Amino acid sequence: MLHRRTVGDMMTKEVLTLRPSTPLREAAALLDANDIVAAPVLDDDGAPVGVVSASDVLRHETGTPEPQGQNGTDEHAWSKARARTAGALMSSPVFTARADWTIPRAARELRSRHVKQLPVVGDDDLLTGIVTRSDLLDAFIRSDAEIRGEVEQDVLVRILDLAEGTVAVEVREGVVTLRGHVPAPRLVPVVVGLCQGVDGVVDVDAHLSTAPAG
């Protein structure tokens, strides 16, 4: 079976965190000094209870309330604009991910929740890392050499048990071209499907016969 990278593979494990009582000026300075766009806010046990983002801080510093409807009422929005601590400013409830989630699942969650990062929690709901949209994008930006190696060794040899050289593999800008032969016609869509499942593959162009080249 192919190894599909998970949130646990892509997440950042060393995470800058805040406490609800962290002064807002300190939180802003930490975000700026570490060049990050958001930080989870943890309770005393280490469980995420919210997220403070750079955009939250910017709205606060400029006196601009959060748009009505995104996170509650006008009163709630103005309350965040008057915040003095991370706990008062943070977006809550916090949406989290699990380390064993697939990359597509995490990407769908980011999109549906309209957020740019997800704190990652374990079975105890305590923070274990954080994953961002750019982290997930990195999963699909792989060199052609990496993709070719996985197709040749994992798909063709290890999974399908084809002899090396039976199918020639070429990869250019994520497009996999296959030339050669397979033992049976039913294997052609199997080969294509497995190659499409390799992280980073954009498309598969298969030129496969079902008899050895004469």
UniProtKB/TrEMBL annotation:
Claim: Kinase is one of the keywords in the record: no
PROSITE patterns in alphabetical order: BON (PS50914), CBS (PS51371)
Record bears the keyword DNA-binding: no
Domain annotation CBS: ranges: 11-68, 90-146
Keywords recorded for this protein, A-Z: CBS domain
Membrane-crossing segments per the record: none
Span of domain BON: 143-212
The protein's name in its UniProt record: CBS domain-containing protein
Taxonomy, superkingdom: Bacteria
Biological classification of the source: Bacteria, Bacillati, Actinomycetota, Actinomycetes, Kitasatosporales
Pfam assignment, any one: CBS
Organism: Streptomyces finlayi
Matching InterPro entries: BON_dom (IPR007055), CBS_dom (IPR000644), CBS_dom_sf (IPR046342), Diverse_CBS-Domain (IPR051257), UCP036990_CBS_BON (IPR017080)
